[in-house]
Amino acid sequence: MLTEQVLSFSTEVLTERQRNYYLENGCVRIERLVSDGWVKRLRAASKQLVNQSRAITVSDDVYVLETGHSAEMQRLKRLTSPVSHHPDFWDFASNSNTVDAVADVVGPNVRFYHSKLNYKWAGGGRVLIGIRISKLAGAAHQL
User: Fold this and answer.
1) Within 13 Å, how many C-alpha atoms sit on residue 11's CB side?
2) Looking at the 3D structure of the chain, how many domains does it have?
3) pTM attached to this predicted model
4) Can you give the C-alpha Rg of the chain in angstroms?
5) Residue 105 in this model has a pLDDT that exceeds 60
6) What kind and span of H or E run contains 63?
7) Which structural domain, as residue segments, surrounds residue 130?
8) Residues 61, 72: Cα–Cα separation, whole Å
């Protein structure tokens, strides 16, 4: 969608100033986009899936394990398609205001493409949630 077309739609989450900043710079900071409630739900879902990985000894279609992964010491590297393995991830990807924030900058024709969780364990690493949202007819955008 062309910028002029995107601008013809009103924003749902971003202010016009934020949208214009994104269009000029390719990024924008949105304070508190993901609520504490969502963070709590997603952390609980992630913890549940990490605990389920205790029974896994080799990487498979769902879990990608780091060397040294065991029931006692989980070293999960990646969870493939978390939206397929816990309903809270799909609910977040399809019903949270993050979808509206993406639509504010790329236009209303967005669809879910892919998700994964990458885990960083050493030194208290953080969980990264990768959600790729693409336009129905256009290039993919990384959120």
Assistant:
1) 15
2) 1
3) 0.76
4) 17
5) yes
6) strand 63-65
7) 3-142
8) 22
